[in-house]
Specification:
Blueprint (H helix, E strand, L loop, with lengths): L38 E5 L2 E8 L1 H11 L1 H5 L3 H12 L3 H8 L4 H11 L7 H8 L1 H7 L14 E7 L5 E10 L6 H5 L2 E7 L5 E5 L8 E4 L3 E7 L15 H11 L3 H9 L7 E7 L4 E7 L4 E5 L5 E4 L18 H13 L13 H9 L26 E8 L4 E5 L10 E5 H5 L11 E2 L1
Parallel strand pairs: 2-5
Antiparallel strand pairs: 1-2, 3-4, 3-12, 4-13, 5-6, 6-7, 7-8, 8-9, 9-10, 10-11, 13-14, 14-15, 15-16
Helix pairs in contact: 1-5, 3-6, 4-6, 5-6, 9-10
Length: 434
């Protein structure tokens, strides 16, 4: 619970003028590439939209291609976002704290989605939504809330073929959020400047829950909150916007790490980044101008749930309940060599799915039924809204979406290389992992 009376006075904050990385015009190492024209394709519930051009153009394309989905947030939610943005001036603060291009993308989105009800001010509230969710829990509509999440990365001797595999579950406690369940969205973003990349997100936002770029860099986050709000920064950035910078500009782990280290944060969070080319990965435990870092072990295993685990940062987050620690323990049992249920050395995309579907309480051994939405203890039973497995070397990923329980749905395969039209793109060998 956030005590609003103790929140900072935002009107006194100065604009952060931190410079973003120099843009680069991207081309693959072999062959040449041209952006794919903007359009939409549906795969069951999963919406895929191709966006290309300037921030305004990509916003306009998203708004026009996903207008009906944006409108389905409902009049009450959209009116609330618009009022918070303009009436309470939260869009103004968001613009001051956002990276270059975000405001223009929101202007384009509002223009493209004309008739949906969402205006520029409401879009900017969503654009800075992770910060506002943290500070104004009871004001922001529930369409924004997702409070769980868990990730793992395995590589080298931990996997069946020595490749890197990355698993992610996006969770929400208590009950499913209909908007997230009904509208899983993949945005194939092809900016004029930077690296083409995919956002896995929902309609109406200009940031990712997870980003995956054409260099094989993956970035995603888990919710955490600070034990002491004095440790976050009024000069800081949004975590999800920072992730979008990694997706657009980082071609290596070191470049991603430099981006993460170069900006203060306005909220606490956990971010995981992987780079198969250098066999590097890290969990970034974020406070205001501080950052803990846990990196891929010599055994090729790394995981995170919703609490800080860097020894210098333990206890500086405000983790509620035992769920985060239980799911962390499940990863230890399933992924570490010598774990009580270890799959070490066996991890493949199929085994990664098995890990994400695991509903075993690591403390009692009890297995929750699929009918239980949130057992508050297991990886697969923690209220999943979406699950994804990444194969960064093959530029492929598998998405579980559909009806609750999400983990029991087929994991539909997508080839980012094919969707971008890259030369020598690896195709999916099967349509899904069942």
């Amino acid at each position: 619970m956030v005590a609003i009376s103790n929140a900072p006075v935002f009107s006194q904050v100065e604009v952060d003028e931190t410079v973003v990385p120099e843009p680069s015009l991207w081309q693959p190492q072999a062959g040449t590439w041209q952006p794919v024209p903007s359009h939409r394709e549906d795969f069951g519930k999963i919406k895929v939209v191709w966006l290309q051009g300037t921030p305004y153009e990509m916003g306009y394309q998203q708004g026009s291609l996903l207008k009906d989905e944006i409108a389905s947030m409902g009049r009450e939610v959209i009116s609330s976002l618009n009022f918070l943005g303009r009436g309470l001036a939260l869009s103004r603060l968001a613009r001051k704290r956002s990276f270059p291009g975000v405001a223009e993308e929101c202007r384009g989105l509002a223009d493209g989605a004309e008739g949906s009800g969402l205006n520029y001010h409401g879009c900017m509230v969503l654009a800075f939504g992770d910060v506002y969710q943290d500070y104004f829990t009871y004001l922001i509509p529930n369409v924004l809330f997702n409070v769980g999440c868990a990730h793992f990365i395995t590589a080298g001797s931990a996997t069946v073929d020595g490749k890197m595999y990355h698993g992610w579950t996006l969770d929400n406690g208590g009950e499913p959020i209909p908007y997230w369940i009904e509208h899983p969205t993949i945005m194939i973003r092809q900016p004029n400047e930077g690296i083409p990349h995919a956002f896995i997100a929902i309609p109406g936002v200009v940031w990712p829950n997870a980003g995956f770029n054409a260099e094989g860099i993956i970035v995603s986050n888990n919710t955490s909150r600070p034990a002491d709000y004095e440790e976050v920064s009024l000069q800081g950035r949004s975590t999800v916007q920072l992730m979008s910078q990694v997706a657009q500009y980082a071609s290596t782990y070191d470049e991603a790490k430099a981006i993460m280290a170069s900006h203060e944060r306005m909220r606490s969070n956990l971010v995981i980044i992987s780079d198969y080319k250098s066999n590097q990965a890290g969990v970034f435990e974020l406070l205001g101008n501080e950052m803990g870092l846990r990196e891929l072990s010599e055994e090729g295993v790394l995981y995170m749930t919703n609490h800080f685990a860097d020894p210098d940062y333990v206890g500086r987050d405000r983790t509620s309940g035992e769920s985060s620690f239980s799911r962390f323990k499940s990863f230890q049992q399933l992924l570490e060599p010598g774990g009580s249920r270890s799959l070490y050395g066996q991890i493949s995309p199929e085994k990664a799915v098995q890990v994400l579907r695991d509903r075993t309480n690591p403390n009692t051994g009890a297995v929750s039924a699929p009918s239980v939405y949130d057992d508050n203890a297991s990886i697969g039973g923690n209220g999943s809204l979406r699950q994804v497995v990444f194969d960064p070397e093959g530029l492929r990923f598998w998405v579980a979406a559909g009806e609750v329980p999400i983990p029991e749905n087929p994991f539909t395969c997508f080839s980012l290389g094919e969707m971008l039209g890259l030369p020598n793109a690896q195709a999916c060998t099967a349509s899904a992992i069942n």
